[in-house]
From TrEMBL:
Membrane-spanning parts: 247-269
Pfam families, alphabetized: C2-set_3, V-set
Gene: PPIL4
Subcellular location: Membrane
Protein name listed in UniProt: Ig-like domain-containing protein
InterPro entries: BTN3A2-like_Ig-C, Ig-like_dom, Ig-like_dom_sf, Ig-like_fold, Ig_sub, Ig_V-set, IgSF_BTN/MOG
UniProt GO molecular function: signaling receptor binding
Amino acid sequence: MKVTQLGCLCVILLYLLHTAGSESFEVLGPTDPIVAVAGDDIILPCYLKPNISAEDMTVDWLNLDFIDDRVFRYQNHRNIQDDQIPSYRGRTSLFKEELWRGNTSLKLTRVQGTDEGHYKCLIQSKSWYDDFTVQVLVEAVGSKPVVSIEGHREGGMGLLCESEGWHPEPELVWLDSKGVHLSAGLPETHRDFKGFYTVKRHVIVQETDTNRFTCRVQQSRINEKMETEIHLPSELFDTTPWKISSIVSYCLGAIIGICLSLTICWISYKKGVIIDQLKLQRDDLTKERDDLTKERDDLKKDKDDLKKDKDDLKKEKDDLKKVRGKSCLQIITLIDLFKSCCVFVEHKVESVVAPSFFFVIN
Ligand SMILES: *[C@@H]1O[C@H](CO)[C@@H](O)[C@H](O)[C@H]1NC(C)=O
Ligand SMILES: *[C@@H]1O[C@H](CO)[C@@H](O)[C@H](O)[C@H]1NC(C)=O
């Protein structure tokens, strides 16, 4: 019984191994590097042998020159964007219509300097995996060198040469008219975010019989070079006019400087005087204002006094009026008294004395 069970297990295992073996595959691609010109679209070939479908498998493209090396992933019938190297975003794809026949080639668009490297094509099924690595080389010929004159330097003429957009990193040399290398400063190289190189280098040249100098930027791996020749007029090397002109310009500068400072001094002096005058004027006006205020107060007081006087006088007048009325009344009373007296006397005297007296009284 036990033996038959074991035998059964063996048969199953053998069967499983057989099926697994039948699913095994190889991943293949080109053995030579793929050379890409910057800006082009390229295909990184990779395929299964035998040509079984990769539609249900996981396809990874990795750039081994990066630490987080994911360039592209296809899994569960979908493209996976997570963990993709940012510089590849939107530039990678598989040929979906080719997957069923085991073609897992990668399309990479707008090739740039940072794309150079070793790409691993890794394909995994449920029970098997294999990979293949293909190298990509990126070539970019940079711009024609630009030479600029920097002026007199250490008894010679300073020149600068600059060229950009290279891949891989180029070499920059300065040559005289006979093609002899000139000793120059250290080359300065800068790599931009797309991985292209800019190179520049200073040189100090002495006057020669031709005054022709060449800046050459070359890249031996891609066998490319770019040159720019410059011819310097010999007057440029003549330091005398340069000295005279510099002296003249110094003098001019000094004169302008003096004039400027004098003007500034004069303006500030003038300003001071005007300010003093204005201050004085302000003080005078303040005093005048104070005086006027005092005067106004005095006048007000006078007015009040006068009003009071007027009131007093009015009262006095009223009093007087009253007194006069009283006097008049008294007089009238007196007159009346006198009249009645007279009447009395008249009455008494009528018969005795002459009527002429009566007339006088009336
Ligand atoms: C797969 O390969 C065989 C030969 O190896 C070929 O005859 C066949 O056409 C290929 N199939 C596809 C889908 O490419
Ligand atoms: C894979 O597909 C691409 C795009 O159609 C094609 O250029 C390439 O030759 C194919 N590779 C193989 C091995 O069939």
